[in-house]
Design goal:
This protein has 512 residues and is mostly helical. Helices cover 76% and strands 0% of the residues.
Length: 512
């Protein structure tokens, strides 16, 4: 069914508008929720399926990469088949593949299900924003954007708490099953309420070669960083081959896209210095943030004795002040240079992360939680103005393409960071262990002290090795946090290479 122009111009009102907004916001909520709900569950999933923790991170990265690939295609798919049809179909499929993930009995099944979740979830996020802007009166477009932004902000906060609690009390499959009833309810309700807003399909050409090259180089890159540790990195012909495929695929993709009339990704927006510098800042900072968010629950569960639920409640503190600070940032947006807000936010994140790079094995719950709480205060200062700055740097007709490309690179940076941080952390822990083993207890005093407590010689050696293990991991965790601090600090200065935006952002354009 295709809506008339009168219907398209007539927004919903009253209770109908409220219900439609809840349905659309819920779709965005579960799509974003699934980016973080599995973070604290990786050790449980790995133990259940009999895989390593590094293999378990595929549960996170497979979703993120699939989502990154489909985001640039959302405009074409929605134009070809209709936004409402695509949205409701994606919602139904998201629920179905969530059930598939919960029933998975092997890593291969789970990763396939997560890929399909990512492909459908990647459609839900931009389309929920588009449809919210379509059903709200134009004068209330900012309210629509606020609803969408709040679900985007709250979902990652609740993800670790919900994932940890469900894992500890009911088992990890339930973190996927909870999506099913919500998706099955929202899809038909959304179609019934929104079908009058459906627009006539447009038979736009699709750049199949560009799409194939995008999938090729992104897939090769992600496989390279995921498998690198297991295959000794570039000592392995497989990793070398994947690296060559990723590099060559990327170069060919760029050349092809720059010469297409209807590119799958409009790379010409990079001619705007403001957009380029903003995206570089976003990629550095979001990758750093995601690395820290992935590493923290792994460290807490694997070496600090935290359950999934407690690890989730600890990491979730980062969202509390974010919700409070978001309206403040919104009020300051039109009064302060957005580059200054971004700089303040990133310097704040760098400073707080620096506090997390000097911890010990005796650290208390609140010594971990308070820096995470403070970190949340800087997140809105970083995200909100940076989006305005990047999209305000391109021509109005390029806003949709720029938004899609920005979301693609943001998601990809998070996926790559997830894989890289695991490898760096484990490598540094191994190196630290070797270094400490060479200097700890050279004269055997510690072993004799353990033996004096009634341990056998082998038990004393085992106890000393456990002590060295704990210290090695703690030092490695601090070293990774120092690298994250450096990335935030670098991103804070990169943003000053961007000029002020030439014009304000039209909220109705940003949603397409």
């Amino acid at each position: 069914m295709t809506g008339s122009s009168d219907a398209l111009d007539r927004p919903l009102q009253g209770g109908m508008l409220f219900l439609a907004a809840i349905v659309l916001a819920s779709a965005n909520f579960i799509a974003v929720l699934d980016m973080t709900i599995a973070n604290v569950s990786v050790p449980n999933i790995a133990g259940s399926l009999g895989i390593s923790a590094s293999q378990g991170t595929w549960v996170i990265t497979s979703y993120s990469v699939a989502e990154a690939i489909v985001v640039p295609l959302t405009g074409w798919i929605a134009g070809r088949f209709g936004s409402v049809r695509v949205f409701t179909t994606a919602m139904l499929l998201f629920g179905a593949f969530s059930a598939f993930c919960g029933l998975a009995q092997s890593l291969e099944m789970l990763v396939f299900g997560r890929i399909m979740q990512g492909l459908t979830g990647g459609l839900l996020m931009p389309l929920s924003q588009t449809l919210l802007l379509r059903i709200f009166p134009k004068e209330k477009a900012n309210a629509a954007m606020a609803i969408w932004a709040m679900t985007t902000l709250i979902a990652p906060v609740l993800g670790p708490i919900l994932g940890g609690s469900l894992c500890d009390n009911f088992g990890w499959p339930l973190i996927f099953f909870i999506n099913v009833p919500l998706a099955m309810f929202c899809a038909p309700v959304a179609f019934k309420m929104l079908r009058r807003y459906e627009q006539s399909p447009v038979r736009m050409p699709i750049d199949l070669i560009g799409l194939s090259l995008l999938i090729l180089f992104v897939g090769a890159l992600q496989l390279m960083v995921d498998l690198g540790k297991e295959h000794a990195w570039f000592e392995s012909p497989l990793i070398v081959s994947l690296g060559v495929i990723a590099a060559v695929g990327f170069v060919v993709f760029v050349i092809w896209e720059l010469n297409q009339r209807h590119p799958i990704v409009n790379l010409r927006v990079f001619r705007h210095r403001g957009f380029t510098m903003s995206v570089i800042t976003l990629t550095l900072a979001f990758g750093a943030m995601f690395a820290a968010n992935v590493l923290t629950p792994l460290w807490l569960q694997s070496y600090m004795g935290y359950t999934s639920a407690w690890a989730g409640m600890t990491t979730a503190w980062s969202g509390v002040l974010a919700v409070i600070a978001a309206p403040i940032v919104g009020q300051r947006m039109g009064k302060v240079d957005p580059r200054r807000l971004v700089f303040i936010g990133l310097i704040w994140l760098a400073g707080v992360t620096a506090l997390r790079s000097n911890l010990t094995n005796d650290v208390t719950y609140w010594q971990i939680s308070i820096p995470l709480l403070l970190m949340g205060a800087g997140l809105p200062f970083f995200f909100v103005p940076l989006t305005a700055l990047s999209l305000g740097s391109v021509e109005p007709h390029e806003t949709a393409s720029a938004a899609g490309l920005q979301n693609f690179l943001r998601t990809l940076s998070g996926a790559v960071a997830t894989s890289v941080v695991q490898t760096v952390w484990e490598d540094k822990a191994s190196y630290n262990h070797a270094e400490l083993s060479g200097v700890v207890d050279r004269w055997g005093a510690a072993v004799r002290a353990y033996e004096a407590q009634g341990m056998s010689h082998d038990q004393a050696i085992y106890a000393l090795n456990n002590l060295v293990d704990g210290q090695s991991v703690m030092i490695a965790t601090n070293q990774v946090m120092a690298l994250v601090t450096a990335a935030f600090f670098l991103a804070a200065w990169v943003i000053w290479l961007a000029p002020k935006p030439k014009h304000a952002i039209d909220a109705t354009q940003a949603g397409h």
